[in-house]
Design a protein that fits this description.
The structure is a single chain. It contains one helix and 13 strands. By secondary structure, the protein is mainly beta. The strands form two sheets. Strands 1, 3, 4, 6, 9, 10, 11 and 13 form an eight-stranded antiparallel β-sheet that branches. A five-stranded antiparallel β-sheet has the order 2-5-12-7-8, with no helix packed on it. Helices cover about 10% and strands about 35% of the residues. It has one domain: Exo-inulinase, domain 1 (Jelly Rolls, Sandwich).
Length: about 210
């Protein structure tokens, strides 16, 4: 009887995991940038063999497509990423499209393993720092970002790296947009010496 129950438990866990993964919607189709929009330096974002390549002058690629009307508050985001040596990039959350400059709304979840910046992959930039880097260049890694209210958890390959809750004291009066609210996602091209690849970018709303 114990073996039967154990078997049912394993099947239940497997099915539950599969359903959770099936609930996630892929935002990058591997063919083009349908549903995405970039302002300045659009050529910093290209597609090679079904994989997004981010390399070039400062620019930001925003999701503006129909999924969830490109606006999330509580969500689970999962990206599959690879960095090259000295890469520096980031995933902006709770942001909105702007034509140029660095996004002025939302938080940036850092992508940087061997760049000189001491704020490494999986940290929330200037809010919750991660060092040393939790992953390596030239290797694909899974980057999870889970946001509920003002609480964020980041994971690399399933391991929690940052677990942070924003308070009113964390909001800078000189940078009032840098906070949790709601919005879309953006990917950052930081500089010509930085190369980052993304082959999957999936999200699931947690407040539907």
């Amino acid at each position: 009887m114990k073996k039967v129950l154990l078997g049912l438990f394993v099947i239940f866990c497997f099915v539950g995991t599969a359903l959770a993964e099936d609930d996630m919607v892929e935002l990058f189709n591997g063919k083009n940038f349908d549903g995405w929009k970039v302002g300045e330096n659009a050529d910093s974002f290209t597609i090679e063999d079904g994989v997004m390549k981010i390399n070039g002058k400062v620019g930001h690629l925003f999701y503006v497509g129909p999924v969830h009307n490109h606006c999330w508050k509580n969500f689970h985001l999962q990206a599959v990423v690879m960095t090259k040596e000295h890469a520096n990039s980031g995933i902006y959350i709770h942001t909105k499209y702007q034509e140029s400059g660095f996004p002025t709304t939302g938080h940036e979840c850092q992508i940087a393993n061997t760049h000189q910046d001491p704020q490494k992959t999986a940290g929330i930039y200037n809010r919750c720092k991660v060092n040393p880097a939790p992953c390596n260049d030239d290797e694909w890694f899974t980057y999870d970002i889970i946001v509920e209210g003002r609480h964020i958890i980041t994971k690399i390959n399933g391991k929690v790296c940052a677990d942070w809750t924003e308070t009113d004291d964390d909001i800078d009066a000189n940078d009032p947009g840098r906070k949790f609210s709601e919005g879309t996602f953006a990917l950052q091209a930081h500089d010509p010496g930085s190369v980052v690849y993304i082959k999957s970018f999936k999200v699931k709303a947690l407040d539907d």
